[in-house]
Amino acid sequence: MTRPHDLIAALADTAEPVPFALVRREGADHLDLFTGPVRTADRLADIPLPDGPSGPRTLAVVPYRQIGERGFACVDDGMPLECLVIAEHHRIGLADALAALPDRPVVSTGAGFDIGDDEYAEIVGRVLAEEIGRGEGANFVIHRTLRASVQGPPVVAALAALRGLLLAERGAYWTFVVHTGTRILVGASPERHVSVDDGLVMMNPISGTFRHTGAAADRDALLRFLRDPKEVEELYMVLDEELKMMATVAEHGGQVIGPYLKEMSHLAHTEYLLAGRGSLDVREVLRETMFAPTVTGSPMENACRVIARHERTGRRYYAGVLALLGRDADGRQTLDAPILIRTAEISPAGELRVPVGATLVRHSTAAGEVAETHAKAAGVLAALGLGPDAAGPLPRSAGTTARSLAEDPEVRAALAARNGPLARFWLDQRTPGATALPGLIGRRALIVDGEDTFTGMLAHQLGALGLAVDRCDWRRPVAVDGYDLVVVGPGPGDPGNLAEPKMAAMRTLLAGLLAAGRPTLAVCLGHQLLSGLLGLPLHRREAPYQGLQREVSVFGRSRRVGFYSTFTALAGADRVATAYGPVEVSRDAADGAVHALRGPGFAGVQFHPESVLSRDGMVVLADLLGHLLARPAWATHSSPERG
Asked: What are the Chorismate-utilising enzyme C-terminal domain coordinates in residue numbering (predicted)?
């Protein structure tokens, strides 16, 4: 039997180190050692996943530039998709691994961020003003990279850093070293991106960063953090964005579980789990979920454009994933993919990169986001021998606390309270057909996507109400024949800029639908374009409504709903005469902002009834569909969601 010490010693052979991965997964009492040849692939679909006995087959190292497979923008830095084809798999006990890994300090020199604090703060300010402030999205992640030089053999340094992370870090989803021959990745990622096991797809949105010292006083500070509107809304926004992805890869969308507190050595985060049943090839699951909104932003496609505008270099492997693909005992595909964050990349020449990013939302401050990038890097930097003086002000190591803050009753109550205002549709288990309304069963709806995959969530809700639903991208010819309802959906951008092809195309579509008298529902951007056709003026808000929940009046009924918008239509009266007939308007009493409108055969809502923030979203949809399809379905069926 080969001893663990010999296995790990062979990895550190400086003459010719073989490709390998050494991984500890969350809660495991062992590390997995994978060795084998490395191949490159052009596409995720080309990742090897052969038939055979149960177990892992391939570990793929997926760069950020792979987002181009979805047609999304990126700074293409040419980083390859590398696949470690697993020839041998060994399990090494945690204690044995710690005894065998190099017990020596990692010496790194010349550390400094490629973008200084002041410059990074300026970028944050521009994104807040020019992107979020102009309706391009709800949140965006902008990264910067700490660079240094590692002294001595890089593989030995990485193995020593792994030992340091195993001892010092806690709460990581994966703690790992991956050596492909052309690069080394070492890190402690807190976040599962996506996993598939026994047909169950799971995602794990994490957001909100609490920097702690491990002192007893942290409890009160943590409670303030958990009630901070910025932190609460930031998690809601990434939850919505990952629910959009689950709507694509799980047959009935995702069920929300949590929230929980994830405690690490320097930080604590808040997180949800999403779970849903799916049957796609796991490589397609990877493709459809590139990449997590916690490292990009939302809506996803436009977030990639914003990143490309404001980041002057490619992301290499930051925000990509490690993806372990395999098969279970019944031959079914399996997948486990952590996000490549809190990770250092080391070249064969010893060049070190530690990329970190901060999530920018409407409440962000430049100073706060600068501090967040320092805090996120702290654990990896400590394991690599980079002290506070090299990287800027870093929080003091927490060590081990006597009692987990997550077990504190007040902390648990504060976390549970976050679900109070949310839509039960996404929180509760859903039995297919249980919420279908008799007047809708057998009818068909087409949703036109304006570059925001909220439309996937909307499709699940309309399906749950009884409709058969198809989706179509605005860039493709929209054939509406055969549909009982057309939904013109949300998307980013300025609805008043009709020189922009998307705005012109969607407005033309709406004009044709109204002229033909075809039942039409417009959501968010669609609602703004519909309002413009009806002659209502459009206004850009000084304070964007991005990820904002409000209780508003919708046709005389109080509804709690979620907004993701920078623009709004304005009306001076509750009824408006238009070229398409009289229109009833639900508007804000203070400023005239139009929350909803309905006329003969059409309706629009500025908010997102499909959002997890829309506690009353299903009620609103059912009422609108009763109006549009001329059957008062709500009166003949109990409510699927009363909130």
From this structure: 118-376
Between the alpha carbon of residue 312 and those of residues 27, 118, 346, 503, 627, the distances in Å are 38, 16, 21, 29, 50
State the Cα–Cα distance between residues 606 and 539, nearest whole angstrom: 13
At residue 148, the 3 state secondary structure works out as strand
Could you give the angle at the alpha carbon of 287 between the alpha carbons of 285 and 292, nearest 5°? 90
Residue 641: inside a domain: no
- Distance, in Å, from the CA atom of 609 to the CA atom of 459, rounded to the nearest integer, reads 11
CATH classification of the domain holding 614: 3.40.50.880
Q: What pLDDT, on the 0 to 100 scale, is given for residue 139?
A: 87
pLDDT of residue 209: 81
Position 67, amino acid: I
In a domain, 642, yes or no: no
Q: What's residue 634's pLDDT? A: 34
Domain end marker among 397, 417, 437: 417
Task: Verify that 360 and 481 share a domain, yes or no.
Answer: no
Q: Which of 394, 417, 440 delimits the end of a domain?
A: 417
Residue 384 DSSP class: T
pLDDT the model gives residue 334: 98
CA distance 495 to 604: 14
State the CATH number of the domain containing residue 55. Answer: 3.60.120.10
- CA 323 – CA 319 distance, rounded (Å): 13
Shared domain check, 459 and 389: no
Q: Which residues pair with 91 in a beta bridge?
A: 32
Q: Which domain holds residue 546?
A: 424-636
Long-range contacts of 511-515 (CB under 8 A, 24+ apart): 513/480, 513/486, 513/488, 513/602, 514/580, 514/601, 514/602
Residue 480 in domain? yes
Predicted local distance difference test score (pLDDT) of residue 215: 60
Q: Which residue has the tokens 């530690």?
A: 354
Give the three-class secondary structure for 628. helix
Supply the pLDDT for residue 6.
Answer: 86
Residues 561, 533: one domain?
A: yes
As a whole number of angstroms, the distance between CA 128 and CA 230 comes to 14
Cis link prior to 490 (omega < 30° from 0)? no
Instruction: Please identify every residue annotated as catalytic.
Output: 524, 608, 610
Number of domains in the chain: 2
In angstroms, the CA 633 to CA 627 distance is 9
Within 296-408, where are the H helices? Answer: 300-310, 366-383, 388-391
pLDDT in the model for residue 390: 38
pLDDT for 389: 37
Q: Give the pLDDT of residue 398.
A: 33
Residues 365 and 461 both lie in one domain: no
Number of Cα atoms under 13 Å in the Cβ half of residue 343: 28
- pLDDT for residue 393: 37
pLDDT of residue 217: 56
Neighbour-count burial for 515-538, b at 16+ CB within 10 Å, e otherwise: eeebbbbbbbbbbbbbbbbbebeb
Q: How far is CA 601 from CA 44, 337, 478, 480, in A?
A: 44, 46, 19, 15
Are the C-beta atoms of 65 and 19 separated by less than 8 Å?
no
Please, are residues 266 and 171 in contact by the beta-carbon 8 Å criterion? no
Q: What is the pLDDT of residue 189?
A: 92
Q: Is residue 643 part of a domain?
A: no
In angstroms, the CA 638 to CA 635 distance is 8
Tokens of 170: 């806690």
Low pLDDT (below 70) residues in the chain = 1, 14, 213-217, 379, 386-403, 631-643
